[in-house]
Amino acid sequence: MWDDMRAVILGGGDVVFDQRVRVTAPANAEDALNVPVMVDASGLDAEDEVEEIVVFADMNPIPRILNYRPAGAKPLIGFRLKLQQATPIRAAARTRDGVWHVGGVFVDAAGGGCTSPALAHSDPQWERHLGEVQARAWAPAADGGVRVRFRVRHPMDTGLAPGIPAFYLESLAVRDGDARDLGQIDLFEPVSENPVFTLEVSPSAGSRSLCLTGRDNNGTPVLADIPLSWRQSALP
Amino acid sequence: MKRTFAKIAVVGAVAGGLAVAAPGGAAQAAGGPTDQDILKDAETPGDILTYGMGTQGQRHSTLKAVNPDTVKKLAPVWAFSFGGEKQRGQESQPIVHDGTIYVTGSYSRLFAIDARTGDKKWQYDARLPEGIMPCCDVVNRGAAIRGDKIYFGTLDARLVALNKDTGKVVWNKKVADYQAGYSMTAAPLIVDGKIITGNSGGEFGVVGAVEARDAESGELIWSRPTVEGNMGTLNGKESTMTGVKNATWTGDLWQTGGGATWLGGTYDPETKSLFFGTGNPAPWNSHLRPGDNLYTSSTLAINPDNGEIKWHFQTTPHDGWDFDGVNEFISFDLKKEGKVIKAGAKADRNGFFFVIDRTNGKLLNATPFVTETSWAKGFDLNTGKPIYNEDKRPPNPVDGGGASAGQGKPIFAAPSFLGGKNWMPMAYSPDTELFYVPANEWGMDIWNEAITYKKGAAYLGAGFTIKPLFEDYIGALRAIDPKTGKIVWEYKNPAPLWGGVLTTAGNLVFTGTPEGYLKAFDAKTGAELWKFNTGSGIVGCPVTWEMDGEQYVSVVSGWGGAVPLWGGEVAKKVKDINQGGMLWTFKLPKT
Q1: For chain B, what is the mean pLDDT?
Q2: DSSP single-letter state for residue A12
Q3: Average pLDDT over residues B465-471
Q4: Cα(A101)–Cα(A47) distance, rounded to whole angstroms?
Q5: Which of A151, B30, B129, B420 is most buried, judged by most C-beta within 10 A?
Q6: Which residues of B touch A227 (CB under 8 A)?
Q7: What ranges in B121-262 are assigned the alpha helix state H?
Q8: In sequence order, which residues have a C-beta less than 8 Å from that of residue A203 and are 6 or more positions away?
Q9: B-contacting residues of A 26-65, CB under 8 Å?
Q10: Would you call A89 helix, strand, or coil by DSSP?
Q11: Which residue of B6, B13, B160 is in closest CB contact with A130?
Q12: Is A3 helix (H, G, I), strand (E, B) or coil?
């Protein structure tokens, strides 16, 4: 199984198992539709820049979960995912030298997370809220990173629930006030409904807000401004 | 930790909100059909780039390998299932380009298929909201191709552009509000870098419109409402009003006047005119809207550069029978008394076959193509107006006489509202100089009722029951001579015909039947030469093209459309037909 995952998801390239890539998740998924996961590869970053993090779950019917390219951010991402059954959840962090550093945890799950219809569809008007964003950024901690969390309203249909085609956000990107790329996320179907992400970004000193853009596989755009409130004085 | 997020931005499905779409401008993308290729589609049998097999919509191929001598050997090469549980109403016409077939399916799906093997290249399933309101089944009639993009309309009234090689969405534009009853079922038309579409929603009091967008960016260039009093736009500003407000409509009824352009249009490069048919006026009860109700139940000639109406011809003024007028207008050269007239023809829902001068909209001839047209004795060729049988207009419910209070007296009228010919496109052969019209023989009991407009609700003000006119057949494929209006031959089919027609230089006419057969006829005599059972009813449009030196024929099979939904007594005759969703491809065996 691992050999297949390595070939399909990581392609070629050297692979090492590395405890510095920390994947945190509950040992048992209470809610298979919303399994919280935190991937933190910042232990690696000190010596070699992380260019991309690939997250996957070996036993999921759709193993790919997301790719994250933290161009102007810490190699850290928090999110929630759907699990169909007990599985390892792995994160592979590719450093500049092309080596994949793989960490992971095993999560037990009762199952069914990928083949259930989204809860959103209990409301026939779900489409009216599609792409709405809620977000907040916090003032920098001692090490200078700005923690930002955002939620995008989207059913994230996997295409595995009867009669409902795959319908999911496929890209999200955060830029700073100078339109500089801070981080890009490729999302796949197993990311939970109404995805919530936590990142730690480094916007330029002059940035008064962050810009979140993205779209789903039907071309629906996502667009939101996330104010850095502590940089916005009462009067301009 | 504070868990509440400040709600700081709410941005939903904003049209054009992002820079992720392709760069704007009419730049021609490499590797796909150009505007010139699209205009010359009818002359290039190696591909099918347009709905109608040419922008004029003649559905004629110059291929001859399959002909009355060889057609008996025509055999399937492969068949492709649309899969899933969505097996109904496959009214599509395939597009063929560079070894790939692009075909739309019911429920707003688009498939790219290897034309040689039938292997699927990719599939796009639009995620439709639960509240879509397609009046007449969840159909789609086909895609459009230009450059590296393939386009189609969805049931929630959106226009989607996808990369033709990957199936990835390039852009997705909301065309209208599906919750007001709009949808999009027709194939888009591409002319000179503009993608031109109509809208659907004729039974919900929408206002019909023709719109042109930049094919690269999807940005709106012009819009032309079809009901007088409504304002058009050009480059983001108001342009001109359609017609003259209140000239043929009373009060504010023009704001919910119907005239949906739900079948799309054709384009004639010789006169540089778009031809769009417009649907029935709303509501059906004609006593609520005195006047001709322009430009409903008409054909409009439109300038593709700016959306201005060049001329109009109204086939059913003051329509009281839902005769609609969307039927395709096909440009052709009418050779009569030694002259060649730039003409166009339309077989209307109202049962008359119109031949019109396409340079000015003047009526040249109007003849019935069905056995009974009870509503009118004929047309006055000088005025272009029908000679009504006033006693065959459904009476005003105010006068009473109906089955219950508020209902008008029922009358029997023919054709029925499903029309002497409905959406299914006819074909024209320049070889035989005949039109091949898929007609139906049915009438209806119809009565008017009181109605008021409510957004998103059906806006009819009428009740009806469809009845066959004959015991032994409803459908009739008829070859019509446009010079005289005479019917040269006919083929009678037990079930109503609901699929498009194809004709070839090989002296053949192809069409499908609800019984499941794709059939080939001798184009001159109407003799049935070949048939093949596709397993479900055919309501799509057959096409033919050449690949690797061989002639191929393709058709989608999958019963559905308006007949089983609205067909009254007729629906009982087709209730045993199984639904489906399959693309069949045929060729002659190699010798």
Answers
A1: 92
A2: S
A3: 94
A4: 13
A5: B420
A6: 8
A7: none
A8: A72, A146, A176, A177, A180, A182, A210, A228
A9: none
A10: strand
A11: B13
A12: helix
B1 touches chain A (CB under 8 A): no
Quick one: pLDDT band at residue A235, thresholds 50, 70, 90?
Answer: low
Q: Helix %, strand %, coil % for chain A, to 5?
A: 10, 45, 45
The residue of A127, A133, A168, A215 whose CB has the most chain B CBs within 10 angstroms, and thus the best one to mutate to test that interface, is A127
Chain B residues whose CB is inside 8 A of the A132 CB are 10-12
Chain B residues whose beta carbon lies within 8 Å of the beta carbon of residue A135: 5-6, 8-9
Nearest residue to B417 via CA among B320, B503, B343:
B320
Report ipTM for this prediction: 0.82
d(CA A82, CA B313): 58
Burial (0-12, 13-18, 19+ Cβ within 10 Å), A61: middle
**What is the rounded CA–CA span in Å between residue B367 and residue B352?**
5
The answer on pLDDT for B9 being more than 50 is no
Chain A touched by B378 (CB under 8 Å): no
Annotated binding site of B: 91, 141, 185, 203, 280, 322, 422-423
Task: Specify the pLDDT at position B569.
Answer: 82
B169: contact with A, CB 8 A cutoff: yes
Instruction: Give the residue numbers of the binding site of B for pyrroloquinoline quinone.
Output: 91, 141, 185, 422-423
Catalytic residue among B156, B292, B322, B348: B322
**CA B157/CA B175 separation, integer angstroms:** 6
pLDDT above 90 covers a percentage of chain A that reads 76
Q: What is the CATH number of domain B35-587?
A: 2.140.10.10
- CB–CB of B20 and A213 under 8 A? yes
Q: In the prediction, which pLDDT does B456 show? A: 80
What do you get for the CA distance between the two ends of chain B, in Å? 78
pLDDT digits (tens, 9 = 90+) for A96-111: 999 999 999 999 998 7
Taking contacts as CB-CB distances below 8 angstroms, the residues of chain B near A124 are 129-131
Indicate yes or no: CB of A130 within 8 angstroms of CB of B12.
yes
Q: Which of B5, B131, B169 sits opposite A136 (nearest CB)?
A: B5
Report yes or no: B125 at the A interface, CB cutoff 8 Å.
yes
Average pLDDT, integer, range B190-204: 90
CATH of domain A16-231: 2.60.40.2470
Is B366 within 8 Å of B378 (Cβ atoms)? yes
Q: What is the pLDDT of residues B481-518, one digit of tens each?
A: 999 999 999 999 999 999 999 999 999 999 999 999 99
Interchain CB contact of A98 with B (< 8 Å): no
Is B214 among the catalytic positions? no
| b/e sequence B438-463, b meaning 16+ C-beta within 10 Å | bbbbbbbbbbbbebeeeebebbbbbb
User: B130 to chain A: which residues are within 8 Å by CB?
Assistant: 121, 124, 126-127
Q: What is the reported pTM? A: 0.90
Element (H, E) at A169: strand A169-175
- Other residues' Cβ atoms within 10 Å of the Cβ of residue B335: 14
| The residue type at B74 | L
A133 interfacial to chain B (CB closer than 8 Å): yes
Is the pLDDT score of B14 beyond 70? no
Of the ranges B12-26, B45-59, B439-453, the best mean pLDDT one: B45-59
Say yes or no: A208 contacts chain B, CB-CB below 8 A. no
Q: From the CA atom positions of chain B, what is the Rg in Å? A: 23
Give me the pLDDT at residue B83, please.
84
